[in-house]
Amino acid sequence: HEGESETTVIEGFLIKNGFADEGGGILCDNTSPIIKDCYFLGTSAFFGGGICALHSDVVVVGSIFDATTAHRGCYIFFSQGGNPSIVSCEFMNTVSGPVSAIDAVDNVETLVFNCLMHDTRTVNGGFVMHSGVAINCTLSDNQFTESPSIVSTHNFVVINSILYDNNLDGIDGRVYFSCLRRAVAFQYGCI
User: Fold this and answer.
1) Among 50, 55, 58, 96, which one has the highest count of C-beta atoms within 10 angstroms of its own C-beta?
2) What's the CA gap between 15 and 4, in Å, rounded?
3) CB-count burial class (<10 Å; 0-12, 13-18, 19+) for 170
């Protein structure tokens, strides 16, 4: 939908088995709602299996993404600018094709705080970010075929987080970052 501000709250919904080109569960285009305590189950799309947000400052809080799939961003896809936030969410049980788990491109500055990603199987990594920060996050027991746990195309900072038992195409738990242009900085965490 379009035009909602941060005063719009989508709360407590089970969003199940949705399918779309963009946003198998929710599509936000030029809008900034708060999506709170929702459960995305089995949704799929080309962009953003659970949520696709374009030109948006969406805030996703306390939500669960379970078995959602997409070509890009099997859980969430952010594009075309914005400053989205993902807070206290859980991402799990996805086996997907040529995708990343959470994908933010095109000048999107993303905050990921206190989130858990586990039992995710994708080709191109867990967090694929243009820039932003992940704080107090845990990525564990994930399998990525071609890219590591965190890929950054500009600047991405990981603070006080745990990256444990993630595998990259048979490399057991040892490759976690890929920096395409600038840097991924890791501060105060456990690898």
Assistant:
1) 50
2) 19
3) exposed
The predicted model scores a pTM of 0.89
Q: Which residues contact 33 (CB under 8 A, 6 or more apart)?
A: 4, 5, 6, 8, 9, 10, 58, 59
Radius of gyration for the alpha carbons in the chain, expressed in angstroms and rounded: 15
- The residue ranking higher by pLDDT, 108 or 185, is 108
Measured CA to CA in angstroms, residue 40 lies from 43, 62, 105, 119 at distances of 7, 12, 22, 16
Q: 175 pLDDT exceeds 50? A: no
The mean pLDDT of the chain is 84
Two tokens at 8? Answer: 């719009």
Amino acid present at 47: F
